Amino acid sequence: LMLNSVLTCLFDSLSTMLRKNVEKRHLYDNLDLVMLTFDEICDDGIILETDPILITQRVRLHQDDIPLSDKTVSQVSNFEF
């Protein structure tokens, strides 16, 4: 039951952030986003959050902290005003 909720949260969060393109190539291109999403969901095996909307907001906050010169091309192309 817990694994199901974590995986559902992970898929829903990534689906939102990657604009419904949850495919292997897009996941590899945005691996930093995937790892940050994992980090926001659980820490040291402890589930911290399972709300995909909240996870998406937190990951986007972390992305905004990175200077534009340090972002990858895929991050800049997904930049929203």
TrEMBL record:
Residues 2-63 form the AP complex mu/sigma subunit domain. It is found in: Cytoplasm; Golgi apparatus membrane; Cytoplasmic vesicle, COPI-coated vesicle membrane. GO terms for biological process: intra-Golgi vesicle-mediated transport; intracellular protein transport; retrograde vesicle-mediated transport, Golgi to endoplasmic reticulum. Gene3D superfamilies: 3.30.450.60. It is a peripheral membrane protein. Keywords: Cytoplasm, Cytoplasmic vesicle, ER-Golgi transport, Golgi apparatus, Membrane, Protein transport, Transport. Belongs to the adaptor complexes small subunit family. Oligomeric complex that consists of at least the alpha, beta, beta', gamma, delta, epsilon and zeta subunits. This is Coatomer subunit zeta. The lineage of its organism: Eukaryota, Metazoa, Spiralia, Gnathifera, Rotifera.
